[in-house]
Amino acid sequence: MSGAVSEIEIYKRMAARRAADLVEDGMTVGLGTGSTAKYMIERLGERVAEGLCIEAIPTSIDSAEKAVKAGIKLTDFSQHRVLDIAIDGADEVQRGTLHLVKGLGGALLREKIVAQSAKRFVVIVDNRKPVDHLGERAPIPVEVVFFGWECTAERLKECGAVAVKPRMDSHGHHFITDNGNLILDCVFGLIEDAEKLQQRIGSIVGVVEHGMFLSMTNEVFVAMDHGVERWERK
């Protein structure tokens, strides 16, 4: 592992562990997905081993497997309609608004359901993720049904996407989400009006969900050189 990669992993772990320590005994917790969230799950597992009593709803099969391995008790929405807290990573965080882009890990639909169901949605990122405008460093992932996805891609281009590409897996096949759908990665460039774009994408037949999480975040923990900063939405 190179020095640069090692440093980023240290930052991810710092932010994740800081957020995991917000969880209190008796809480129901939403578990995010991805390379930063795995450190949060790891820390919660340590705390469970120390006596913390919680139940959790994971946002992906991968996170569910990690949670079970960590000794975290799982539950579901048939038992809990509201979560006390959800903790997840992000691909971009807009400074000030704390709007997010999520979904490069492919779990955006379940992540949004969990985030929306939580009383408190906490995001954990390293210092590469803050941006001034959404679309600055990441495409907007859009989960779509397989049938007619080519037509859906054309409608997304009409919304202003300069490139729309179906995500592929490591074997060169279409990436399939845990929900059995495709992901189209859409490059819009700098997004000046995220609310308007969200409405336009949401109106397209065939779109299941998109990776813009607007006005959903309560706070963000950002790992920096000097430590972990806590940001609240303005």
Instruction: Please indicate the percent range of residues in DSSP E strands (runs of 2 or more).
Output: 25-35%
The best one-word shape is globular
Rg from Cα: 17 Å
Based on secondary structure, the structural category is alpha/beta
Q: What is the first-to-last residue Cα distance?
A: 38 Å
Q: How many helices? A: 6
Report on the architecture of this protein.
It catalyses: aldehydo-D-ribose 5-phosphate = D-ribulose 5-phosphate. InterPro entries: NagB/RpiA_transferase-like, Ribose-5P_isomerase, Ribose5P_isomerase_typA_subgr, Ribose5P_isomerase_type_A. Pathway: Carbohydrate degradation; pentose phosphate pathway; D-ribose 5-phosphate from D-ribulose 5-phosphate (non-oxidative stage): step 1/1. By secondary structure, the chain is α/β, with parallel strands linked by helices. Helix 2 links the parallel strand 1 and strand 2 (55-58). It has six helices and 15 strands. The relative contact order is 0.17. The chain starts with a helix and ends with a strand. The longest helix is centred in the first third of the chain and has 18 residues, at 3-20. The strands form three sheets. The chain has a seven-stranded mixed sheet, sandwiched between helices. Helix 2 packs parallel to helix 3. The model has no long low-confidence stretch (mean pLDDT 96).
